[in-house]
Write a structure and sequence with these properties.
Elements: H1 4-15, E1 25-30, E2 33-36, E3 50-53, H2 66-75, E4 80-84, H3 87-93, E5 98-99, H4 104-109, E6 113-116, H5 123-132, E7 138-141, E8 145-150, H6 153-176
Parallel strand pairs: 6-7
Antiparallel strand pairs: 1-2, 1-4, 2-3, 4-8, 5-6, 7-8
Length: about 180
């Protein structure tokens, strides 16, 4: 049976261009571990989340980024995590060590967005993101995507959308010579 919260947030992420194809994933903390979207799944199509224990033992089919989610849950009190691939945020991460939003929503919710290094699916990426999300609700893995932690999937989605909006504003203002 699919989970309506995962489906609703996954649909929003896809409709708004924050994920494409089978990229991105989401998880939610549950008793004894967390549930994560399956590897290779479309986030806007019903699918049963896969359980990963607090010890880091994933059920078959867990997203390859389960290591990142595990590190974040171990280091923070997050209730949910959204990993997306928003194009403007990813593009800015290629040349910026930190992204500092200039728009009102970005300044309010994400005054400074850290950018970290690490290859997708690796322990290095998991360690770097886990460390950064201790003090920031959202981080960008350079050239890869955003990871947002929050109490709920909806709140993590909102942070993801705010980061992409802030990155668009920065890109447009840089190109416009205001």
């Amino acid at each position: 049976m699919h989970d309506i919260e995962f489906l609703n947030v996954g649909t929003r992420l896809h409709q708004e261009g924050l994920v494409t194809s089978v990229f991105g994933n989401m998880s939610r903390r549950v008793e004894g571990g967390f549930e994560i979207t399956p590897t290779g799944s479309f986030l806007d199509v019903p699918a049963r989340p896969v359980f990963v224990s607090d010890e880091g033992v994933p059920e078959a089919g867990a997203s390859s980024e389960y290591r990142v989610h595990l590190q974040v849950y171990r280091r923070t009190d997050a209730g949910a995590i959204v990993h997306a691939h928003p194009p403007y945020a990813v593009a800015l991460s290629l040349s910026c060590p930190t992204i500092v939003p200039v728009d009102s929503e970005g300044k309010m919710l994400l005054p400074e967005i850290p950018v970290v290094d690490g290859e997708p699916g690796t322990e290095t990426l998991a360690e770097n993101i886990g460390a950064a999300l201790v003090s920031s609700p959202l981080v960008i893995a350079r050239g890869h995507g955003t990871f947002a932690r929050a109490e709920t999937l909806v709140d993590a989605y909102i942070l993801t959308a705010v980061a992409e909006h802030a990155a668009r504003i920065l890109s447009i203002s840089a190109a416009s010579d205001f």
